[in-house]
Automatic annotation (TrEMBL):
The name this protein goes by in its record: ATP phosphoribosyltransferase
Residue span(s) of domain Histidine biosynthesis HisG C-terminal: 233-305
Regulation: Feedback inhibited by histidine.
GO molecular function terms attached to this record: ATP binding; ATP phosphoribosyltransferase activity; magnesium ion binding
Domain named ATP phosphoribosyltransferase catalytic: residues: 76-228
EC nos: 2.4.2.17
Biological processes per GO annotation: L-histidine biosynthetic process
Gene designation: hisG
Record's catalysed reaction(s): 1-(5-phospho-beta-D-ribosyl)-ATP + diphosphate = 5-phospho-alpha-D-ribose 1-diphosphate + ATP
PANTHER family assigned: ATP PHOSPHORIBOSYLTRANSFERASE, ATP PHOSPHORIBOSYLTRANSFERASE ATP-PRTASE
Known pathway: Amino-acid biosynthesis; L-histidine biosynthesis; L-histidine from 5-phospho-alpha-D-ribose 1-diphosphate: step 1/9
Top EC class for this record: transferase
Subcellular locations according to the entry: Cytoplasm
C-alpha cells in the first residue's frame, strides 16, 4: 500500500496514521502507547500480560497484534490524547497529567497503577517563598502551563508562567525562574538540583483512554476485561496454609478469599489446608495475624489472572 501525504513532522505522522486507518479494515482497533520513555515498558508489559502477541518494534511506528484485532501505534506521549480524541487511535495509554494538559476530550477507561507521580511546585532550598501567596508576581518554569495556570487561578494567584519543554529543575539555579512546577516521583531530581517541594498541584498515573465514540465496542470491552483481570491479579496473592481444625474458624475469619476460602482435608487427622486470596496491600498484616491464629506452612504465590 502506498501513502502519498504532503506535510511534515507531527502533522505528517498524524496524516500517515489517518490514511492508514482509512485504507485499513475499519474493524481493527488501534491503541497508541508511548514509543520510548517512562511508560513504554509497562504499557507493552500490560498488553503482553493480556495475552496479546506482537513485536515491540522500536524503529517501526505500527505493530500488529497477531491474535487479536488490534494494532499498536508507538507515539510521543504528548500526542496520544489528541490522536485518541480525533479517532486516529481508538485507545491510548498515557499519564493523566498529559491528558489534562492537552485538554483532550477522551473517555477515561481504567487507571493502570503505573507511572505514578505528582506534579509539584518546588522552590530553591534557600528561597524566601513560604506560602502560596508569595508566588504572586514570581516566575515559575514548567512544561505544564495549562495545569499550572488552572491551579494558580483556583488559588487566586497571578504568576509569570515560563513554559520550557524539559530540564525544568535547572530553571531557578540559572536565574530563569523563582520556582518550578514539574513531575516528582522519588524527589531525587529536586534534591540534586537544590530544590524543595512546596505545593502539590496534581497527582497522576497511567490510564487507558478511549475515543468517546468507541467505548461500547465489543473488542474494547474484551480488552478492558483482560486488563482488569491482569490488574486484579497483580494486586492480590494466592495463599495456601495448614491449620488444625480447632483454629480453622479463627483463620477463615481472616481470609475472605474471592468468594470464601477453599478448605481441603489433610492426610493428618484434624488438619486442613486453606486456599485463599489476599490483597497485596494488607499482605504483611494478614500473614502476621494468620500466624498468631495458628496457621502453619504458609505458601504465597503470584496470581496470573483473576476473572470474576
Ligand atoms: N519520575 C517519574 N516517575 C513516575 N512517572 C513519571 C515520572 N516522570 C514522568 N512520569 C510519567 O510518565 C509520563 C512520561 O514521562 P517521560 O519522561 O517518558 O515523558 P516525555 O519525556 O515527555 O516522553 P516523550 O518522548 O514520549 O514525549 C509522564 O507524562 C508522567 O505521566
Ligand atoms: O522525583 P524523581 O524520581 O527524581 O523524578 C522526577 C523526574 O522524572 C521526570 O524526568 P525524566 O527522568 O523522565 O526525564 P525527562 O525530563 O527527560 O523526561 C520528571 O520530569 C522529573 O525531572
Ligand atoms: Mg512528552
Amino acid at each position: 500500500m502506498i501513502y502519498v501525504v504532503f506535510c511534515t513532522s507531527k502533522l505528517f505522522l498524524k496524516n500517515l496514521f489517518l490514511v492508514h486507518s482509512i485504507f485499513n479494515t475499519l474493524k481493527t482497533l488501534k491503541i497508541a502507547i508511548q514509543k520510548s520513555g517512562r511508560l513504554n515498558e509497562k504499557s507493552v508489559e500490560i498488553l503482553k500480560n493480556c495475552g496479546l502477541t506482537f513485536e515491540n518494534y522500536k524503529s517501526s511506528l505500527i505493530s500488529s497484534v497477531t491474535n487479536f484485532p488490534l494494532e499498536i501505534l508507538f507515539l510521543r506521549d504528548d500526542d496520544i490524547p489528541e490522536y485518541v480524541q480525533d479517532g486516529i487511535a481508538d485507545l491510548g495509554i498515557v499519564g493523566e497529567n498529559v491528558i489534562t494538559e492537552t485538554k483532550a476530550k477522551v473517555t477515561h477507561l481504567q487507571k493502570l497503577g503505573f507511572g505514578k507521580c505528582t506534579l509539584k511546585i518546588a522552590v530553591q532550598n534557600s528561597s524566601s517563598i513560604e506560602k502560596l501567596e508569595d508566588l504572586n508576581g514570581k516566575a515559575i518554569a514548567t512544561s505544564y502551563p495549562v495545569i499550572l495556570e488552572n491551579f494558580l487561578q483556583s488559588k487566586g494567584i497571578k504568576s509569570d508562567i515560563r513554559t520550557i519543554s524539559g530540564s525544568v529543575e535547572i530553571g531557578p539555579g540559572l536565574g530563569l525562574s523563582d520556582a518550578i512546577c514539574d513531575i516528582v516521583s522519588t524527589g531525587g531530581t529536586l534534591k540534586s538540583n537544590g530544590l524543595k517541594p512546596f505545593a502539590d498541584v496534581m497527582s497522576s498515573e497511567a490510564v487507558l483512554i478511549g475515543n468517546e465514540a468507541i467505548a461500547d465496542h465489543p473488542e474494547v470491552a474484551e480488552l478492558l476485561q483482560r486488563i482488569r483481570s491482569v490488574l486484579s491479579a497483580k494486586s492480590n496473592k494466592y495463599v495456601v496454609l495448614n491449620v488444625s481444625k480447632d483454629n480453622l474458624q479463627k483463620v477463615v475469619n481472616l481470609l475472605p478469599g474471592v468468594k470464601s476460602p477453599t478448605v481441603v482435608p489433610l492426610f493428618e487427622p484434624n488438619w486442613v489446608a486453606v486456599h485463599s486470596v489476599i490483597a497485596e496491600a494488607d499482605f504483611w498484616d494478614k500473614i502476621n495475624s494468620l500466624k498468631a491464629a495458628g496457621a502453619e506452612g504458609i505458601l504465597v504465590m503470584p496470581i496470573e489472572k483473576i476473572i470474576t
